């Protein structure tokens, strides 16, 4: 007897076993089954997936579901539309030849071969398509013009399942980011909370794909502004902060300002500055990109100063050293106010590039920024 059969022998029917509805999905039935027995849907779903990992993202096993519901596996497979395994293909059925996958760079050579065969052997469209393993439309395009048509722009595919849970997903991410310095929760944690707290019908793979492209997961994956010339000072600034990342930073900073002790700081300017620097390091130094330049243009000087010093210069009382208790409170309030205004500008479509353009314009007005190099024959 295998280990799998031993684990099935230990299964027992649940006390409450609602009847499955005809045409119902497996996830929907598991949620109703969990609610009827006062269980978390994520726990029951993982339990039905079985060992070894009681899989997060794995499909529940039909035989385990049959045991806990006290029903025949065949009846469950007839009622639940996605529980029955897919039928394998007939072994005697001849396999269709795979269609050729052609890259854009290979199309000119393919078109030339099609036109050569058509001219040399006088083949029609269908034989040419079979020989080159392409669609008839490709052959017609090759015969009409030697130049392949440009590819159609790829459009983003909509995900209705993700759109349905996006408000709940944003709420979970905002709450977690406010408590954990802007970091993302794990896929498993988000998926469990969506199932248990929001009764969401979403797969583990959908959440995993969503997080893999999240701006906080890939801090360097920022968007570029089209139409800007490359190769100059602003080439590296053609980036905009994703709106989702700004939202997480706002929630995190608001939580730190309201309850600094919960984040391990005493609320002073020194510890608050250290906390913000740590968050910037945790975001691969992307959170405060442009903050120093933005402060310099706002103050009108201080390009050689660090941003904490610039913030202290921008307090209502100006530079005070050493910091008095009252000046320390003002410096902390000024820091959070400046960060909020800075994130407001970075959230704009061209905000970061505009910050650096303004900084470059300010540099051009400074006399020390311009210097003349004497001709080569005048250099000693």
TrEMBL record:
TniQ domain location? 15-81
Region (Disordered) residue ranges read 1-28
Official protein name in the record: TniQ domain-containing protein
Organism of this sequence:
Embleya scabrispora
Give the organism's phylogenetic lineage.
Bacteria, Bacillati, Actinomycetota, Actinomycetes, Kitasatosporales
